[in-house]
Amino acid sequence: MTRSDDGSPAGATTILIVDDHALVREGLRWVLEVHADLDVVDEAGDSATAVAKAASERPDVVLLDVEIPGDDPVVTVRRIREVSPDSAVVILSMYDSPDLLRRLIAAGVRAYLLKSVGREELVAAIHKARDGSGSVLLSVSGQSLVQVQSAESAMLSAVELEILQLAAEAMTNAQIARRLDLTEATVKSHLRRIFAKLGAVSRIDAVNKAVAASLVALPHDRLVPRPRRPPRQ
Questions:
Q1: CA-CA distance, 198 to 50, in Å (whole number)?
Q2: Which of 35, 81, 118, 189 has the largest CB neighbor count within 10 A?
Q3: What is the mean pLDDT of residues 196-207?
């Protein structure tokens, strides 16, 4: 079989498996590498290792379990996308949470699958994710799907969620504008709409409310202070 410079079969979809259980990783590798056009290039068991290996391997697809040691899964997804922008992130999870689902979609995942999916559905999702179509593949319960869709109109938009997440990471308006390829005025306009939707009076207030509602997550090494109450007289 012809192989590319990195040793993968030529034209194969390269995959990084991220799960904290070695047996799960081994099982997924066996299931996937039965297919000649799928090549598992590496594995990771925690968020920091996942980001590091995504940066070094630049896989086509990162198959990510949300329950791994380290950062919040949304933070992990964002960091993977920063170090390897062309990698498509496919979530494989035991948990069917509408709030988490909305946050991960906003972070840019290409698919969210429950671990109850069959092998054919998993392989199809990986192929679809690599194709780079604009749609996100969801294989979740009907109840979660209904909740996500029904809340969509009242939620922050994907861009607003991304801006709010970066604000939670203590980025300035100018830094957010550069990261998202927007003007600083556009970022300020989005923030005003975010404040209105959340009933927030400041950036810190908006971040605190969004964290409390599980819309965004704080990195483990960063805390956002809550506004202090005035001293009692």
A1: 33
A2: 81
A3: 79
